[in-house]
Design a protein that fits this description.
Blueprint: E1 9-10, E2 34-35, E3 40-44, H1 50-63, H2 69-72, E4 78-84, E5 91-96, E6 105-112, H3 123-134, H4 138-141, E7 143-152, E8 157-159, H5 163-166, H6 171-180, H7 199-202, H8 209-220, E9 226-228, E10 232-238, E11 250-254, E12 259-261, H9 268-293
Parallel strand pairs: 1-4
Antiparallel strand pairs: 2-3, 3-5, 4-5, 6-7, 6-10, 7-8, 9-12, 10-11
Helix pairs in contact: 8-9
């Protein structure tokens, strides 16, 4: 499978994303993702076959006329590939910057599926995934929270838990994280109980996270085009206008380096994790509503 990258370099104002909560970052001489001031996100092509697989998915998805328009909104817009000057000429996938229209975004990355490796993976890679999955809720719940950042309304700053500690949390920790993600009280204080003040605005309502997840679930119950191995759901909402214009909550699917053809088979691995995650979000929403009523 050949990968064609635009042969020219693009000179522009680029910077590291401010609110990256998971995924690869620039380190040890390897380039990390970048954003520009025109609403675009530049993701370095991963080594071996992963970069090619991700590009193949985006090109297939973009041209697939059988994908409903209401489902396309859950995926970043794809702008092709480019070699970017200032990043050692690294080939990058150019995508929509999902956070470009947010002033104070809270962001959560949720890795989906109880199996995070892909078909034809080496035994070494499978064992590596199994070790990581066993330390989290991946196997037991069908997903894990890979990272999140939330705007702390008391401290007037962003708060992000340590990613290594987050990967080791179990079910109770997931519930706590989902509550912290929609809370207004001081989040760095571990003795403080999250108030879930924004649960109804973010998770609930006709345009909230739960409604969007249920719409995705309906599609995944039927779609057989792709199997989304080791894919993430990104949840975003705006804190700047949450008391006025609403949370502007968005659900997006990201990270497609391990996507394979569905070959006419439903992606039960992703669907199972999605159903489980929906139940967690619904429980947080319901418990928040009950506490408000009392």
């Amino acid at each position: 499978m050949g990968l064609v990258v635009s042969s020219y370099s693009v000179k522009m104002h680029l910077k590291a994303p401010e609110h990256q909560v998971a995924g690869h970052i620039a380190k040890d001489g390897k380039p990390g993702p970048l954003v520009d001031d025109k609403g675009r996100f530049f993701k370095p092509l991963q080594g071996d076959s992963r970069g090619e697989i991700e590009v193949k998915f985006y090109e297939s998805f973009s041209s697939n006329t059988e994908i409903p328009d209401h489902i396309r909104r859950y995926f970043p817009v794809y702008h092709g590939t480019q070699a970017v000057e200032g990043s050692d000429g690294a080939a990058m996938i150019v995508l929509e910057n999902l956070l470009s229209q947010y002033s104070k975004p809270s962001v959560m990355d949720v890795k989906m599926g109880s199996r995070t490796w892909y078909p034809e993976a080496s035994e070494e890679y499978i064992q590596k995934c199994l070790r990581k999955d066993a330390r989290s809720t991946t196997v037991s719940s069908g997903f894990r929270i890979s990272g999140f950042e939330v705007y702390d309304h008391k401290e007037l700053s962003f708060w992000k838990p340590d990613r290594k500690l987050l990967n080791g949390i179990k079910v109770d920790g997931v519930r706590l994280a989902l509550r912290k993600f929609v809370s207004s009280n001081t989040l760095s204080d571990t003795s403080s109980k999250p108030d879930s003040a924004f649960a109804s605005s973010v998770y609930g309502g006709s345009n909230g996270v739960l409604t969007q997840l249920l719409e995705l679930k309906t599609w995944f119950e039927n779609q057989t085009f792709y199997h989304f191995n080791s894919c993430s759901i990104l949840i975003i909402y705006e804190n700047e206008s949450i008391h006025d214009d609403g949370a502007r909550a968005q659900v997006k699917l990201v990270d497609f380096a391990h996507v394979h053809d569905g070959n006419g088979v439903i992606d039960h691995n992703f669907l199972g994790g999605l159903c489980s995650f929906i139940n967690f979000v619904r429980d947080i929403l319901q418990s928040s509503d009950e506490s408000t009523d009392n």
